[in-house]
Write the structure tokens for this entry.
Amino acid sequence: MYKIYKLIIGGALFCLLVLCGIADAVSSNSTGNRIWDGDLNLSLEYIWTPQSFSGFYYDVNTGEGSENLTIDLDKTSERIIGIRNLVYETTPSDSDFKYDTWGEYQVVGFMADRYFAGYSDASFSNNLSLMADEKLSKVLIDSNERKSLYSGSSLVLKEGYELEIKEVDRDGEKVLIDLRKDGKHIDTDFVGSNDDYTYKKDLGLNDEVAIIAVHLDNIFKGTETNAVFIDGVFQISDQLTSINSSDTYGKMEITSISPQKIIMKNPEEIVLTKGKNIDIMGKLKFIVADDSTLRFAPMIEMSEPGNYVLRGTVAEEEFKWTPMNFEGFYYNIDEGIGEESLVVKEIDDRTIKKGTLEYKSQPEEVRFEHDEWGEFEAMGFLADKYFAGYPDNKFSDGISLVSNGELAKVLIDSEEKKTLFSGSSLLLEEGYELEIKEVDTDGSSVFLSLYKNGSLLDTDTVPSNHDYIYSSDIGSVEDVPLIVVHLNDIFRGTETNAVFIEGIFQISQEYVTMEVGKKYGLMEVTELSADGITMENTDEISLPRDKVIDVMGNIQFHIADSSDLRYYPFIEKNTTPLESLEIEVPGTLIERETANIRVSSRGGVVGEAVVNINEKDIGLTSQEGTIKYIAPDAGKLKVVATKDGFVSASKEIEVIARDDETRKINIEISTDEVYEGDEISISTVKSLSGEPVPEVELFYDGKVIGNTSEKGELKYVVKDPGIHKIKTAPNGFLPAEYNLEIIAREAKYIYSGLKIIPIDPTAKENMSFSVEITNIGTAAGEEQVGLNINGSAIDTRIIVLEIDESAFLNFTYMPFEAGKYRVQVGTEELDFEVRKKSVVPYIGIGLAIILIVFGVGYSIIKKREKREKRVKKKGL
């Protein structure tokens, strides 16, 4: 009977464990990854949260994020999202102003973008909720950057707003401020030192809304110049977004709205078509693999130039990141290929133990974007796409870089169609450009020249529907195809000749070497072969509050400013250098005249690009990449060009009245960045022709600094950092002005490579700390460097460094007790443990002394015994 009871209990426990395991599997398979893969046994009801999708707004310090997207599929092979089976929810949350004295405002993530929802506890505004009125506004500026503005200069804001410092009063206690929009005066106010300027506007709601707030920290009244110091700016858009119930955005419809929540669902079925990017709403899309297996993921359209943060799933303990949950890792979604992984195996008291942060990657064969070329070996390395080798393909007999411990970055892998005309060039990366020299008489081939940084490297004649290939050595590997361009077709006309390109591949000639023992940031290569690479952390890694830690290459950890541990890996991606569009149109147009707008990319014209002017589409570019536009009345225009697969381009242009054609001039500065002490060249040119205008009187902060020369130039040495105003005297021309920002020259230091010697210190024995300090600033400087142990200042040194100069600094310290310690030098921190001083050596020394004494004593006794025996014998 007892055995039966045991069997019943054991069976029950087994069932319980199985059920727990299933529950755990369901919970872990229903969220956490960005990529949903039908082969990974993921839940059919899946949710993307701010913790798992970097496109959703998330505050790591508070752990709050407002957006969730839930999908409910019928089965893993079903490519249809049923009606109302895609559900989006978002709720507002409080966010601190960057200038924290102002308090808080409400922010809400909406369609994977950040919006202003209302004022909850702001010092310059009554509490209000835009969501209660079914409205939202974009947050344009939220900054606590300190700026200095001089009399006559302006703080340039968004949407055409400009805040001009008109005059400082006699006592230097107040300043007269003038606010303009698109050059027109809209507000004037006197503001005192340590006070706020606020501009409220009627946006069609019950109350006026504060759309601009500026904090004036201090006012300076001098004998020659006056200045205002600003350390807080907040601005929201005056164009509200309506969020009415039943409104549709893309494929989603608002089904519920309140001050606390917005809910959206799909009113129609959504088909997840192979190889397509599906517009869901706003910038949010689904990218769907071109594969028989259903594999897709949410993504944010990165079509606007700039930096984007790609982060992994937020972790609170040990965690493993792969391309499935870290968007920064290289991943080919069409083929389901991506082998990078980063694993935190052990965390103890906010410290990743030595050897417990592991990074792995391996090469895989992937198809070129231009499918006819076959495959190449790609490898994700340090969150970037690298070339590892060519198998046998259309233009290579088989080459391996990785087997030689080398990798080269993939610069271009594209099948975008481009049209180039005779005499134009295809612009490639790293200074290469391929010029279309001449099309032969029967239009069957084209003569090409390849240049690098202006120097001729190669020439070739390539027939239609063939490849141009340029090969060179990479490291120890010879004759590697660096550049491959497919010439799809050639056109020879009576007036123009053109080449149609469809397929570009380029790898860098600059390569990285890999070998066991080599370090990348905090990581060291521990294993290396043609099959892949493994790296581990060589020292403990501390995860202190509110820190960003460089791990290796582009990969960093962001740690929350919270008593609870929250952290994630991330990379910053710049969209500008890749497939970017360019707009060619004169900067100044005459009203009612026709302008020719041309859109190109890498030197080749781009057809079917959408051209938008002042937020209204005017049409698509032709196959020659152009579109005609009749300029409206005088004013400023913003031209934007977009096309799927390209980074968008924008350009500001000005339309002037015909009467002002010869009177409109511009002020130009010789360099983009101006530092204090620089000598700059100020030029005056005609707006339409760019022709220099001589003898123009120039004012700097309201004071005459001279007239331009016959070449329309004036040299001037700038001094005070801040924003200054340059103006022209009318003198027959329309007045022109230029806001010049002068950057302060200052030293800037970075700390790296904090090391402890010895690595296993003992109590009551000297140890040392070594750190490297580099001045990456724009001026030489003196830095006071402190050694802090467990939060207490131990020692201070002063170091003087020139620009770009580095130096090592050493500190000595004796810990008196065993235990855990934290050392900080500058921005570098490390945790270490001090052991008790071992008594074993002393016991050993004592034993040795005893043995020596015993041995000496024993030897003396033996010698004495022998001597006594000899004496006795003599006596006999």
